Every structure is written in structure tokens, then in C-alpha cells.
């Protein structure tokens, strides 16, 4: 494998991370909105948000970032992005838990 192929592989992985992460988040938010309109059980929606974002973050870390091939500055930027994604995910999960538990409504949870 030549050095050019390695550089191309790094370029592809960084673009996959840069594009696919936000696309998956937008699709997830759209699916959540549509699921509420279609009457999808809230347990399914909550379970999806509880499990799928951490799975994506793990896949992104283990498969789409090669610490040996990318610079330490790229790694710090990657860690910062993962930290932001984690914080947004936890915040949205807390919002869903509060919404489904009925904190925002008098008289109980969402039906």
C-alpha cells in the first residue's frame, strides 16, 4: 500500500465522519417527529435514542478514526466533536424522559 492510498483512506474516513454523523442526527430527529405523529410507542422512540447514538459514537471511534494515521490535532478535534455529540445526546435523552414522564403536562405523561 502506498502512502497516497493511506492519505486517501484518511480523507475518506474524515469525510464520512463529517457528513454521516449530522445526517444520522437529522434523520433521527425527523424520525422522532414523524413517530410522534404516527403514534409509535414512546418506549421504542426512547430506546432508539438511548442505544443508537452511543453505538454510532463507538463505531465512529473504532472504525472511522485511525489515530495512527491522523495528527494529534485531528484527534483533539475529533475528541471535542465526540464530547459535543455526547452532551447533545444526553440532553435530548433527558428531554425525552421528562417529556414522556409528564413533567411538562399536568395530569400525566404523553398518551
In short:
The chain is mostly helical and 111 residues long. Helices cover 79% and strands 0% of the residues.
Task: Describe this protein's structure.
The protein has 111 residues and is mostly helical. It has one domain (3-101). It is built from three helices and no strands. Residues 1-5 have low confidence and may be disordered.
Largest sheet: none
The ordered string of helix (H) and strand (E) elements is HHH
Helix segment tally: 3
Overall mean confidence score, pLDDT: 83
Uncertain segments are: 1-5
Class from helix and strand fractions = mainly alpha
Rg calculated over all Cα atoms: 18 Å
Fraction in helix: over 70%
The domain tally reads 1
> Strand content of the residues, in percent?
under 5%
Distance between the termini: 57 Å
Approximate shape:
elongated
Strands, total number: 0
